[in-house]
Amino acid sequence: MSSRPTNINTSVPTATNAVPLSKARLAFFQPLSKEAEFDDAMVAKELMNFSPIRLEEMDSVSLLDRMDTKLVLSIHQLPGLLADLTPDYYMLDIEGQRLFTYDSLYFDTPDLSAYHKHHNRRLNRFKVRQRKYVESDLSFIEVKYKNNKNRTIKERKRTSGIHPQLQEHSKSWMKMIYGERFPIASLKPSVRIIFNRLTLVSKDTKERATLDLFLRFSKVDTRLEGEQWYIRPDLVIAEVKQASRDRRSPMLQALLKRNIRPLKVSKYCMTIAHCYPEVKYNRFKHRMTRIEYKLARVKKDLAV
Question: How deeply is 194 buried, as exposed, middle or buried, from its count of CB atoms within 10 A (0-12, 13-18, 19+)?
Answer without folding.
Answer: buried
